Amino acid sequence: MSKRANKVVIPAAGLGTRFLPATKAMPKEMLPVVDKPAIQYVVEEAVDAGMTDVLMILGRNKNALENHFDRVTELEIALRKKGDKRRLDSVEQPNDLADIHFLRQGDPLGLGHAVLRAKRHVGNEPFAVLLGDDLIDERDSLLVQMLDEQEKRNATIIALMEVPAESISLYGAAAVEATDDPSVVRVTGLVEKPAVEDAPSNLAIIGRYVLRPEVFGVLEHTEPGKGGEIQLTDALQELAADESIAGGVYGVIFDGRRYDTGDRADYIKAIVQLATDREDLGAELKPWLRSFVAGLED
């Protein structure tokens, strides 16, 4: 059994062009999902899984992320004077979630390059990579299961999810073999955004990884792939093809609640789903939604 991963890398250097003009001056990771920025959900997921050391890989003009996880003394004083404990708690919570570090990516050379930038911080130990576009419902323990599998198998673990066959070209796709656990498969190959007819399966890679440090050595010689970027999927393909490098690659098949905030329509759906599940909002929103949908049908 290997050491359990405690460090988390969150790549957050993207430009967020699909959400322009909203992301012209505000990082896409700071777009609110109900009343919290998307990035906070991701950090909370890591903390809930027992991870306390977070490294965010940033691009230019992403200072808002650093500010969000820092103290705002004047606001805290004002809320404290008003006796508004609920809002004060919500403002103070991000400050104390974890030990959060920030590092500039520099050249925008893709996800693989962003992960490689974490090499010095991570060192020689397993670590997790969480992408901010994928939010996993707090009621589902995907990351905990992945950490357990990594510790048990001493291998690379990725999260997989079945998607409609016609949608697989939007994702990395995995070729797999069964294991003794029906929720875990051995990954034998990976293809980044394949054509529908070329996809090895309809199991898509979603934005959760638990990696061994050997991935850094692979990324250092991974040539740019699709889009001229260094693809993490290409490095994982090399690890899957040669188990002697880092114990192979295994996939945890996730069938829980995932919210895609990287697409405008799915972002709106995520807000509606999460808001209607909330005790403080659901009772008001559900009857309104029923009435609104009935009006659409008319």
TrEMBL record:
EC number: 2.7.7.9
UniProt-listed InterPro entries: GalU_uridylyltTrfase_bac/arc, NTP_transferase_dom, Nucleotide-diphossugar_trans
Chain ranges of the Nucleotidyl transferase domain: 7-275
UniProt keyword Transferase, yes or no: yes
Keyword annotations from UniProtKB, A to Z: Nucleotidyltransferase, Transferase
CDD domains cross-referenced by the UniProt entry: UGPase_prokaryotic
Amino-acid biosynthesis as UniProt keyword: no
Catalysed conversion reaction: alpha-D-glucose 1-phosphate + UTP + H(+) = UDP-alpha-D-glucose + diphosphate
Main enzyme class: transferase
One biological process term in Gene Ontology: UDP-alpha-D-glucose metabolic process
GO MF annotation: an example: UTP:glucose-1-phosphate uridylyltransferase activity
PANTHER family the UniProt entry points to: UTP--GLUCOSE-1-PHOSPHATE URIDYLYLTRANSFERASE
Family: Belongs to the UDPGP type 2 family.
Protein name stated in the entry: UTP--glucose-1-phosphate uridylyltransferase
Biological source species: Mycetocola lacteus
Gene transcribed to yield this protein: galU
